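Margin note: ligand = 5-amino-5-deoxy-1-O-phosphono-D-mannitol.
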Amino acid sequence: MCGIVGYIGKQKASPILINGLLRLEYRGYDSAGIATIEENKINIMKVKGRVKNLYNLDGIDNLKGTIGIAHTRWATHGIPSTQNAHPHSDNSKEFAVVHNGIIENYNDLKTFLTEKGYKFYSQTDTEIIPNLVHYYYQKEDKDDDLKVLRAVKNACADLKGSYAIELVTSHAPNKMIVVRKDSPLVIGKGDGENYISSDIPAILSFTKDFYLIDDNEFAVLTRDAVEFYNNKLEKINKKVESIQWSATSAEKDGYDDYMLKEIHEQPNAIRETIGSRLPEDGPCYFEDLNFTKEYLDSINKIYIVACGTAMHAGLVGKNILEKLCKIQTEVDIASEFRYRDPLINTQTLCIFISQSGETADTIAALKLAKQKGATTLAITNVIGSSITREADYSIYTHAGPEIAVASTKAYTSQVVLISILAIYFAELLESVDTKIIKNLKTEILKLPAKIEETIKVDKQIQEFSRKVFQEKDIFFLGRGIDCTVAQEGSLKLKEISYIHSEAYAAGELKHGPIALIEKGITVIGIITDPQLVEKSVSNIQEVITRGAKTLIITNQDLPQNHFDTIIKIPEVNYLLSPVISVVPLQLLSYYISKEKGLDVDKPRNLAKSVTVE
Ligand code: M6R
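Resulting structure:
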């Protein structure tokens, strides 16, 4: 969802900016643009559609400026068009900005500025920003180094909503100004050059050293320095954070698509997630956690709050936490949780799961939980992301950058991390037999090898996908923990193959959904919980009787002749089975999407990180 890149240095800015935008394509967008400064003049070039269309613009090669801002837009206010694409400038073309987020009071501000004589040429909320900065700049009577910054600060004071803003101006052609509130932005530190991005991977090939800018903070960048200010424009200090991800980890590395690469990366991602958290002799260890038995004894409820795939990881987490820790655990969708006055207090532990750490609803839900006095713990993949700056505790999946919109390795690493967290709690609480804990630890350590084994079903899945890629509806069924995987499989399929799909708890079938089952329909069953095998098989039998074609993902010995296709996966403790059983489902949605000739990594209407509500 909207991407920002910025560069200030000695090199020609435009190729660096376009390259950065290409690396942000995975976020989802519909138009793109750049602005550079040359001889005190701002040059703006924008296109509807793909970033690469920028290369076709007349004059793009002649942009010589060494300072520039760039953006990929995902339409919120106004249709996708060149006019609505960023950067936007003020009427007199003295200020140009790119903006991520939403200005909620833009209509009021537009009316105010219109009354002052400003004109608007786009339908965006963003266009008010450069004009508002211009308005305040005109009113400044003190002509010093901070004049532009004061104008930006005054404009921001009028904005309601979320924003990450990057600004260049002909009044200070050797500077760039950035500010953020509830929208991600990082600053990359180079040698005689500095970078800006909404996402680390876009500038990872240039630097691994980053400054993390917090809400309502401003940064002024020159070639050689970055100065930070709080919202009173007092100077503040920031330390440089080094990111361990390699630049190639954010590239396709020979795979056709990022999604396939990321499916194959799961064994290693999980090795990284486990890291040193499961020592051979001794309890689970989290460097950043210091929970005590007394605290855990005092909590009466755990809430897991997240969106999409991360929420599905939370559903698995609920099963494991309740089983091992005997603490009631609720899972909620962040966009619901934040508006329904949830019953939480100082005795509630709220866990927020987010790959990106930037999902607007999840962050808002976290802020609400904090207000209500709950302890908050974030599970994320991105060091320094917004969520980590809000939560009381943060733990990282260390899965490496996930670029494809469809989440794969983030899900499995989240499930593994929450499993380790549940064991950590159970060890402190002494809530479960040590033999069970020992067995689970051994099983977690074997997961990477078992995923490697599971990925070998690739050919079988590819073959199956050829049979079903033209279907209109596909159903997923499972019981218990298998139902949570059915939900994830169904989401993945919808997301990248555009096939309508539903997931149901298999036992719920008779209460309505079975009316949809007719001859030839495809039903996918997940069967891994040994205690529920017979019941699940009976449910599948019910759809077979009504003419459904079935694909079964299982680690159990099932009668071969009952089902059309059986995909056998390695055995594992059923609590951890989602980490394995989800893999064939990820591959299935991938191959169906490929059969349909769709853009796997950038599905329509979707964005990688949903930074607006
Ligand atoms: O970055 P987050 O984990 O907070 O993102 C949450 C969802 O937007 C995300 O999981 C989404 O559902 C994925 N595209 C699913 O593949």
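The pocket of 5-amino-5-deoxy-1-O-phosphono-D-mannitol is lined by residues 307-310, 354-356, 359, 362, 405-407, 491, 495, 609-610 (CB under 6 Å).
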